[in-house]
From TrEMBL:
Protein's name according to its UniProt entry: DUF3068 domain-containing protein
Compositionally biased tracts (Polar residues): 314-326
Keywords: Membrane, Transmembrane, Transmembrane helix
Transmembrane segments: 277-298
Pfam families found in the cross-reference section: PorA
Region (Disordered): 308-347
Amino acid sequence: MRPTSGAILVAAGAFLIVGAVATPLAVAPALVKVPLDQSSVTISKAQNATVLDFGTLSERTAVNLTAHRAVRGDVKDGNADRAVFNVGVRVIDDASKKEITVSTDRVALDRRTAMAVACCAEDINGAAFKHEGLTYTFPFGTEKKTYQYFDNTARKAYPAKYVSTEKLQGLTVYKFEMTVEPIKISEIKVPGSLLGSSEPAVNAGRYYANTRTLWVEPDSGVIVKGQEKQLQTLRDGTGPDKLKIIDADLAFTEDTQKQQAKAAKDARDQINLLTTVVPIVLGLLGLALVLLGLYLVIRAARRGPEAALVETGDQPTTDLPSQASSEPVDEPTVPAGGRHAVERSEP
């Protein structure tokens, strides 16, 4: 094989090695992003909740609730840098099938960091609102630290603190907790009797508090399990809670956890392919080509002088005895019989 073939192999191998280095550093970050066509439905359930029956204006206890949350990506308004989600949440009384609460949300987020970005007519319940912090997912490569996580009901971001590392649905997950202290979210007019007032109607403050716990698969940022201890109450001007609107401990169902775990595993496998498997394969193949190419180049360089010695015209002649002599040499003749004539010497 010619030396040029070896040089070609060395160049090809070097190209693959460069690709092995570039894939995790440049290619993977460009490809590992929040999908534009996000589509998921998560279901949470609460047992023995307390809710306000607005028909009778009385509290109902021992109520079982189901919360459906649908997340749909708006592909048209997304691009290489941002994803846009339309989200709807319905909390339903399992017994009566009546809706307890309904909410909608539209948010844009950075496809790499998962942080909210101002864009695309974002709103909460149809009213324009600028989100902040993380929403619905954590970043790729989630760290053991505190993140700002947005609460739609309070309409602000709160610290979600790393608590511990646990095992869940066969995955290693990071556990985060955030606390929303009681905050006034609206004011409504209600019958005075509802709050123990003699007035026909009074203004009541609607207050909201929550303790949210999130279990996150760190490589993908997928929330495998979510849990909320939510409390909404009515207060009069004196301050203390007078009536519960909702008091519930909602958590992802087992099926939803399995669904989220599968999504996390699939995303993690894709990330691992781009950041580990492909670079290793390219690196090993590139190294093999470089070594093979160098071997061929060195072998060709060593064989070069030997090949020059055997070219026509440069071959050494065999060292034969000289045929030249100062005296003539008598050649015996061969008779027709094919045998030499032998003379006997007489004594």
